[in-house]
């Protein structure tokens, strides 16, 4: 357990602040374009097969950061409310993927790629993307995705029957022509269905921004960036017939007319959101980009908050802890009560082998954020890393509070398991491990830990029942995996 703890700490937190873990996401938007390319290569049989099954789940790496999640919540809240959805039920999730993309995949979660944040210049541009994706959620487009595939497969099956009849009658060439024409018609039918959904989401997003009193300038500007990307790739701009999305130029024309007629077009940009966005963008680049690239984009002459943020991450990632800590100290000196500056300072100290020195900064950050669960998980880790048994009681309290507020944090569950094991509470250590493994998509590891927890916990107690729930879910997931292997 101790060796595992050291390994997890090293792998999960190589650079400060962002916590990454893999989850399974049914990426509807991305799968649509993949399926069309697959159909074009493999024809009618593939179309029939795809139409009869849901797209496979894709493993994606989720990036979690307290400040970033608070930012997404703040800039999306008025748009979500304008859409008629409850902001408390909508999540904006950051995916570690350099491509410029955002998507929904069922439920009320919007997934945004890190590449989109890197490409965007303003928070208002990100709001335009969020508004569009909320249009997909409100319109139930993921649920209706199968309708488009069903209509396309109906055309292709009909053409297959006609082609078979022609071939049987001795007209082989005519039969093949019918089959190919049906194939093309089926693909065209699905693409048209997809383009209509995208246009509806564009219009819905514009309506939400208007109702929220937020300008659509960012939305238009971001589409212009996408259009420039299409120009660089040499994508023909004459016709969107063979595309899942309308051409960016077509969307810009429609949206500009809509937005410019709206009083919100002249609404001022929120300066706090824009300032916060520059911080988020800088720390994200510092975390995922090559340190040399980050230091080139944010040179020493850049003395802004974003500049210090980016360099702190870059120096830490490049294994220059003193330089990283110096950047963090400058930020804290500018604003000693900024919890995210304190969190950064504390985590650099922690990962530089100075957990005791990190405690004051992290404890203050936890207090300032009312025990924000992601920050609390790092604080709990620091308390454990001091190897002082007197800190275990506080670590358990902090970590239990963290998982109570945010159950979807495998790192916090892992650290809580370390505390339980150190205290000799093996059943609850096993329960914490079961929670973590199930969350990470490893039911084969969650299952034995859940069984161990059930064997040692009082029967029908709250923790015993939770262990039983995990065992049942894990058994079902393991059965699915075994079935796929056959």
State the order of secondary-structure elements, H for helix, E for strand. HEHEHEEEHHHHHHHHHHHHHHHHHH
Count the E strands.
5
Give the class from helix and strand content and strand pairing: mainly alpha
**Gap between N and C termini, in Å?**
34 Å
- Low-confidence stretches are 1-15, 21-58, 146-172, 174-179, 181-194
Taking the sheet with the most strands, its summary is: 5 strands, mixed
The share of residues in extended strands comes to: 5-15%
Into which percent range does the helicity of residues fall? over 70%
> In what order do the strands lie side by side in the largest sheet?
1-2-3-5-4
Global morphology: globular
Mean pLDDT: 80
What would you report as the Rg, rounded to the nearest angstrom? 26 Å
Counting H and I runs of at least 4 residues, what is the number of helices? 21
